[in-house]
Amino acid sequence: MKNSNCELQKIEVTQRYEIISRPSDIEAHHWNEWLASAVDPGIIALNVISVSGTAAYDYLFYGQNVPRRNDGRLRDGVLKKYRHIEGLNWWCSGVDPLNDYSPMMWGGMKPDHPRRDLNKVLKFIKYEHPLRVPTRAFFLAVPDHIWESVAARYDLTISDEDRALGFWHWVWKYNISVVICEGAKKAGALLTLGYAAIALPGINSGYRNPKDEFGQPTGNLHLIPELQHFATLGRKFIICFDHDTKPETVQRVNIAISQTAKLLTKCGCQVLVTQWSYPEKGIDDLIAARGPAVTDEIIKLALTKEKWQVKEYSRLSIEAALVLNQRYLGALTIPETAKLILLKSVKGSGKTESFAAIVAEAIANGQPVILLSHRVQLAQAIADRVGIPYITEVRNSETGILLGFALCVDSLHPNGQARFNALYWKEPLVIIDESEQVIWHLLSANTEVKKHRVEVLNQLSQLFKNAFAPGRGKVILADADLSDLSPEMVMGLAETNVTPWVVVNNWKGQPWNIYHYKQTTPVNWLAALEAHIKTGGKPFIAVDCQKAKSKWGTKVLEARFKKQFPDRKILRIDSETIADPQHEAYNCISRLNKVLLEYDIVLASPSIGTGVSIDIWGHFTSVWGCFRGVAPENATRQALARVREAIPRHLWVAPHGLGKIGNGAINLKSLLACEHKRFQANLKLLQNASLIIDGDEININRTALNVFGKMACRINAGMIHYRDTVLEELGNEGHNIVDVHDNKIRKKLNNEITAQTNEVYNGECQDITAADTTEMTAAKYEALQQQRAKTTTERHIERKYKLEQRYGVDVTSELVKKDDQGYYPQLRLHFYLTLGRAKVADRDRKLGEKMLACKSAWLPDFNGGQLGLVIHALELFNIPNFIADDREFRGTDADLVQMANNALSVKWQVKTVLGITLNDNDSPIVILRRLLKKIGLKLKYICRDGTGERQRVYRVVDADDGRDKIFKHWLALDTAQA
User: Do 625 and 562 form a contact (C-beta atoms < 8 A)?
Assistant: First the structure.
């Protein structure tokens, strides 16, 4: 039975008269307080009593360790401290699962006039519990109709034997799901709705943390006995703590959830965590305000602990100083005292325009301004909109660099084009638009920033310290998806805690109709797109790749559309075309609203990403998105939002993403443990190579590493269920998702797009092979690499010369394709595993010496650059011997079986070091095949044995693909350099 009395209870509370009879031992205002929390009257009557006078002392001071005089009376100090309970209080206690479910002596008291907290003068202690008695949990007694309601929810029956033993024994016996909340009233409200709910007196009360008199741990964390009693194998626990907004409270609650969940999981329980965005803080308030249906939905959507943790990494929990609900942010009046300003507002709400007035005021006052981005073209466009020069334009600026500029974070170091030194930037105004993506780029990109990541982090640290120092300096972070991670990064690098001034704009704008193509491939999406174009449609098409080998990238789609629609004007915008002086898309990002009007079909890669606003109305008829999971899910949503007009969206998203970060974990501890263990192992190998190095002396920037880890977990979680995550977040933004039910099989179209891909890719490989590199030198190549504007011919020359230098052999189309498939790292690993084995220690030592010189390391980059640990692992699994001759392999070979057993016994280490996931049921042949793939070799099935069980026979292949010639070239180079 659901809470049929909910409406009646509300009437009773508001009009202050009783519809349901109140027991005489409960005061009216206590009764009404519980009713206002949506608790069934029968539950209140069984568990609550009003107490006052000296009788109240009996409830709190029954413990053996309560301070008493020799005559048994309480000490004067205790009497004075607890004098307030002589007034009216309500007392609540339930049954004791550890004492045959008899009434529990322990409970909780709420005085009408609470005492002050001596540690926090402005705070009152609302609830009292028995003094010097271990805290317990509330198992509220329930009337029969509530018991039946719980049974109905879980589709269970109640036997006569069950009734004799009681409700909570029945819950224990049948392994019924349990909701854990904080506070007895919340448990009462949940029980009223038919949930078996256990209440803790505090968020940390579900476990014990043994300590001695000096506060030092004396044992391991463990569940309190009654929770341990219910933590039976397979039981589902749903943790439903309050929805808090204060950062420090959120942090404490999250720690408590993590600890409780970890201990329950160890017992074999399934743990879920609730979340909600409604303003009501407690679940009882939520039930009273919004009814059972909302609560049912919240509990139904409870997340696993890992997914909940990842969700927390996407949340902005800091309380907003200014909450808006308007189309554009407009001018912002920032308090003089604010040092860190956070702006969270939907895409297209004018965040960048809001900076303009702030920047103008700063410049007028002579304050230096620096705007940081992660893409050059984007930085140029934003700089133009806010009225400051980009770094390459400062020569033509009247003030030069004196009053600041925009810059890509890749160049934020003394050797970059800005010759940046944060020490000279006093009281700066630092603006980071799209901060979440800028920070992720800084911590993970393989662009120029990878070579200088440690120095860029050091420069940022000093820059933020300068901004937070006394004076007018400020840091502004803005992002539609702003989370706690952005301010955590900034304050961590600054080594300063400030109170952020937060603006949240909840405007959602006009929702889009998003037509979702559910098929496993985008073929039907493409068919619908081409049908739309044939009928005169003018689409803006966003995809997440551009390479010629990408079947659904900008290059292939452009080539197809040019054949299919020769009369239409088509513009391809990607990282190549915007940097090609001979292409019509050259430098178009800052003038998109004018350029795009000239085209019927526009194809865009992630080069049109965050911060770009296409404010054109009445030109495009639709937006089409095809995303294979190359970029994080938030980048996918950003790409769909570049066109601001609310025209229909047509979307295909891959069910699962293509890339994962680190070891692919969505658990922060696991992901970072992988990096730390690799680092320690690499250090040990360097020490064995006679490099004197102490890991404790190396600064690994724990703040940045933690933010990296949290963002990586966030991305990894999104990649696992990529499609579902994208659709869920689009729905949260208020858009309408419409599934397109088109199951027609289009083999002809699929074959055509495959043929088009082959044509485009083969053509590009041939063009690279044919490029003339006869005049190229090392100096010219380096200059060409640094050159931002490049024609197609120059790009082909650059690529061919790179391949010539990399492999030392003639460049063929086949070599270009192999290089695209990751041939180089496989070959390097094979070379150092065999012919170049003696060079490994010296190679790694050079990187170690560089780290030692600057006393800093970025673990993901450093670990990725060291080969010794990977070589050591492959040798441990006997790979050099397995590939030494033209041997035949059978799954029953003794050395192969031994290798497989060794690998399976250290699965986690194999994942950590080699990035290979092994399962217990993997055969020796499967494991060998995965290990050989690391060095670009394969196992080929040859035949079966002629007798007995007729074992399948395999042989290692692909060693004769020309790599011997390449290895000889590399060996000669190493010898010459030595």
Answer: no
